[in-house]
Amino acid sequence: MTGTETTVDLACFETRGRVYGIDVLQIREIVRCQEVTPLPRAPELIEGVIDLRGVVIPVIDLGHALCKEPADEGPETRIAVLEVDGMVLGLRVDAAVDVISVEARDVDDPPALATHAGYDTVRAVVRRADAAPVLVLSLEHLLESVYRSALHPSSEAEA
Amino acid sequence: MSEMPFASGSVFRRRLMIRNVLLQACTGIVVALYLFALLQLTAEQWREFLVAGAIFAGVSALAEIWMQCRIDRAVVACIDAQVGGAVQQAHFRGGFEAVMDLPRRMVLATQATWAIVAITVPGWMMLRLDDFSGIQPILIAAVAAMGGLVTSIFLFFALKRFVAPLRDSWAWQLGGAAERQGLIRGLSLFRKLGIAVSGVMVSTVFAAALLSYSLAFRPIEAYSIRVQSGYVGRMAERVVGPQDPLLDLVKDDLDELGIAGQLLVVDLSSRKIVNGPPEALTASELRWIAASKGDTGTSLEIDSDSSFAWSRIEDDENLALVAATPRSLLIGDLGRVQLVFGVLLLVAFAISLIAAFLMAADVGRTTEWLRQEVGRIASGDLTRGEVRESEDELGDLARSFEGMFDSLRATIRRMAEMAERVDAEASAIAKVGRNVASTTVDQVQGIKRASGSMAAINGKVSGIANSAQLLNGNVEEASSSILELGAAGEELNQTASSLSVQITDVSSSIEEMIRSARQVSENTETLAGAVSETSASMAQMADSMHQVERAASETAGFSSQVVVLAEGGQERVRQTIAGMDAIREATGSADVVIRGLGERVHEIGTIVDVIDDVADETSLLALNAAIIAAQAGEQGRAFSVVADEIKALADRVLASTKEISGLIRAVQQESSNAISAIERGSSSVQSGVELSAEAGASLEEITGAARASGVRIEEIVQAVREQAKDASRVSELMGQVNRSVEEIRAGGHEQERGNETVMRGTVVMREVAQQTHRTTEEQARGAGRIRDSIESVTEAVDKIHAALQEQSVECRHAVSFLEEVYERTRSNEESSRRMSEATQRLQQQAEALREDVRRFRIE
Fold first, then answer.
1. Hey, which CATH number is domain A3-154, 2.40.50.180, 3.30.70.100, 2.60.40.10, 2.115.10.20?
2. What chain B residue is nearest to A25 in terms of C-alpha separation?
3. What ipTM does this complex have?
4. What phi and psi, each to the nearest 5 degrees, are found at residue B390?
5. pLDDT 10s digits, B205-236
């Protein structure tokens, strides 16, 4: 069977009422949200750092990064510990929903109209039969926007 | 009360008029614009339309303003009266009635004016224009009527809103809903909704249908006329006159090609058809062609019975070549389309009417039920009626109303029970109070009788005192006579020792002695009479005293009866209070139990929180496990299934804990409801306890007074007994006196006999002298005995006197005691009357409460 080639495992997270997916291979674990220590003069999108069992890792708030909305912590808030390009970081989300297996034929590219214009925040769109589509995030792009926020803090804030 | 929203009646009238006129003017403009879009009239026809519209709309507006002034007259009068401060209830009634009915009457007036406009404007145009006929007047009338209908619906709601402050303020002034009910001309929600919705829907459908019908024909006409126009334009270059033979060829051509129905040549100066059937075009069509400035033209710009195109003949400017096709020919099969269209229109009418009817019936059904239920409850029927359900706000209202009604029923039921209990207690207290009152009256009568007897005794005692005084005088007199006698005896003794020498004086001395003895005898008789009189008086006195004693012990019996009854009443009151205390204790323990229950629920809540936390943690662990399983690829599939199940389980636990939290909140709400209900019960019990304590205090007062009067009566009985003892002692002494008197009398007789012997024995001197000596000695002894007797009589009399004085004092005491008792009893009467009043008040209140409660039928 070709099951291994045709399925992708996604961890689904909810932020500001929308569901986003991240490839499970990029996730180390999911932990409860803990108090984030702000870093002074850090890039705008870096909320601060947390101590994860003796390792200090930076934390980015997904809602802030995507929607420019300030974080709103609740009992469901989680931090997903990710590894991107050999870098470990925490991504704060409003809730961790589920881990789903999707068939490759259900995965679409983002609209060409958007990608041609240089859009790369969402890597793929997963169709689901009974719910709204899951947007698969490009974590590399997320890191890039963190760097950009460090370089052009004013333009990011305005945008 | 809110502020008066209008400065005066004329301000109200002006504002009402401005609203009315503005709305009508808007409708007039909309109707006119719609007609402009719908109709293609000639300039002349438009002119007549505008003239007729201006005239009749103006006249109708004046008529409507006149009608408005009649309709709002009562409202204006009431506002003026209120502003001037001279408002009366009659003003409010008239004003309220008029203001409630104002929107409806204004709507009728508006519909009447628009109906007049709908009839008069087309009528005027038909009179003035000979070729104005067919569908156009009907269209104008229908559109005006629709405009009137829609305006009247808007006007109704706008005016209702406008008069709302006045209406509500006056309704408040009028007070009772029942009184207002008689002043309101009812309009059911069902009818209101039905008219509003169906009116708007029908007019919308109708307006759209008219417009679409009118516009559907235009493309057909335009196409046909374009063909006609091109052909006629070409022919006009070739034809030279009205009788040109070419015309016949052209006619055949037109007919064969189907370009037009007829070809005509028109003389523009005389406006006559010079070639072709003369009635092919109407006078107004000919007029219109003649009036046109250009070389060519079509009928697209006017509404006419035929579609035509014309062109001036090049060789003769006064002639025009016209190709005309009757409208009926153009429409052709459109007739069937129109039929289908008409049927569809009817179906749309029917659907809109049914929809309006259904909606109105849906709303009307629930509101009617609500109205009936509220009416039923207002009339006091609290039984559970039928239930209506609806998913809208009316359904919510009905449900909350039902809930309110349930709690009202529970309250009334509790109130009824309380009233029954209070009433039973009050009647028990009232019974006791009546007993006390009747006993008190008896007591007063007894005391009055005792008082009378005492006064009689007092009179008798003073009579006895007088007699004793008299007796005393007599005894003193007797005493002095006895002293005199003693002296005479002494003298006799001396005379007897010298008897021999003074024998002749003996006789006179003896006579003197006899006289003295007789005097003694008389005095003794008097004494005896006095003594027996005293004795009789004493017996009478003893009788009176027995009477006093009997009366006093009777009174004592009454007062002890009072005490027993009053104590019975107090026992009832104590039982009542004990019952109330038991209730209070029971509600207190219920309160404690409910609070304990609340704490348990709270503890359950903390446990549920812990479960919640654990489930949350489990869910997170399951998620991480799922991630690791996914990363492990195919090998992790089985594990991922387990992780999914664990997560689902944890999610179910989370959902359950949420449900439990909701339940806990509901339980806490219920227990706080129960606690407040118990507190209300406690306050009712408290008021019952206070009432009972009041009754108890009254009874306590009665008992105290009755006890005091019993003690007083005992004292009287005691005093009377002592007095009776004294009286019997007096009686005894009087017997002694009597015996002494008898002795005195016997002594007197003996002396008389001795004197006779002296008289006979004077001849035997010595014997006689000796005898005399013996006799005198004897006499001296008798005198001494008399003196003794007298002294004892005096003593006895003194004793009598003293005893009588004592008795008199006791009598006065007794009288004053009785007066005191009387006062006490009067005060008893007063307090029993007060208590009776209080009980009556209590009973009345209980009765009123029961009466109030009885108004509601619960079961």
1. 2.40.50.180
2. B631
3. 0.82
4. -150, 155
5. 777 777 776 677 777 778 888 888 888 888 88
